């Protein structure tokens, strides 16, 4: 079970507090979105700008890490938390130091416009932590996920042992040709699309691919995914999903 942006149903998304809570609640996977700052640091922010999730404004790509650190990324949330922007490095430290093995699902947001720089910096960061060349995809502590075929393809070309999820949300996508073309090890449809195409999980498995489904916050959807054999269920409420699936 993958905590989507951390336990983001309870704490402000992409903050250390959200990820720590997800781990305490028993998540065995964490999802984060990464974007490049003006000074080429990878930070965990979903939107193009910081307007929604901080007390600052502006595009992540036009702000330095030092500038981003001046803003509060927790105050917008009902929890009223104070939180600094989280870097990918800080999240990797938390994930890899946790008391049980946890996988980090790193989503590259719109990497194409940076011409491969996002993937290059991401792989350098994974190398720094010794997790860029796992013995097998099954043993990998990092998974790179993206809606970008170019983004997935660059990871496969430069780090062939790293598992990858090609995200997508159309019937055509579920046909698997794009995933095959870029060598993705898994497909990642939304729960809405998977509801319309329940055979997608078996078809992916027949092609040797796992399925990652987002974002599953309802009990009936969680049990639906489990019954279909979805490998990774991403949710904003790890506590709830773990409870439902254990019942
Ligand atoms: O985990 C995949 C999912 O996060 C994709 O959608 O918009 O939440 O990044 P989004
Ligand atoms: Ca995401």
Automatic annotation (TrEMBL):
GO MF annotations, alphabetized: phosphoric diester hydrolase activity
Residue ranges annotated for the GP-PDE domain, each copy included: 1-245
PROSITE patterns: GP_PDE (PS51704)
Classification via InterPro entries: GP_PDE_dom (IPR030395), PLC-like_Pdiesterase_TIM-brl (IPR017946)
GO BP annotation list: lipid metabolic process
UniProt protein name: Glycerophosphoryl diester phosphodiesterase
Gene source species: Williamsia limnetica
Organism ancestry: Bacteria, Bacillati, Actinomycetota, Actinomycetes, Mycobacteriales
């Amino acid at each position: 079970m993958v905590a989507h942006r951390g336990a983001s149903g309870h704490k402000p998304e992409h903050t250390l507090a959200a990820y720590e809570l997800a781990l305490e609640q028993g998540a065995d996977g964490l999802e984060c979105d990464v974007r490049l700052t003006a000074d080429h640091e990878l930070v965990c922010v979903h939107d193009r700008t910081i307007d929604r999730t901080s007390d600052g404004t502006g595009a992540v790509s036009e702000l330095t890490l030092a500038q981003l650190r001046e803003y509060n990324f927790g105050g917008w949330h009902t929890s009223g938390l104070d939180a600094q922007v989280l870097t990918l490095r800080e999240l990797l430290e938390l994930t890899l130091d946790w008391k049980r093995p946890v996988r980090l699902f790193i989503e590259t947001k719109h990497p194409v416009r940076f011409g491969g720089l996002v993937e290059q910096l991401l792989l350098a960061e994974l190398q720094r932590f010794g997790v860029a060349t796992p013995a097998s995809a099954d043993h990998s502590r990092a998974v790179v996920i993206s809606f970008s075929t170019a983004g997935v393809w660059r990871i496969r070309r430069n780090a062939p042992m790293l598992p990858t999820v090609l995200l997508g949300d159309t019937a055509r996508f579920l046909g698997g040709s794009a995933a095959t073309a870029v060598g993705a090890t898994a497909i990642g449809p939304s729960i809405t699309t998977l509801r319309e195409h329940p055979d997608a999980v078996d078809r992916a498995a027949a092609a040797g691919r796992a399925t990652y489904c987002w974002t599953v916050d309802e009990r009936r959807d969680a049990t639906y995914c489990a019954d279909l054999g979805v490998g990774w269920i991403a949710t904003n409420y790890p506590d709830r999903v773990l409870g439902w699936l254990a019942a």
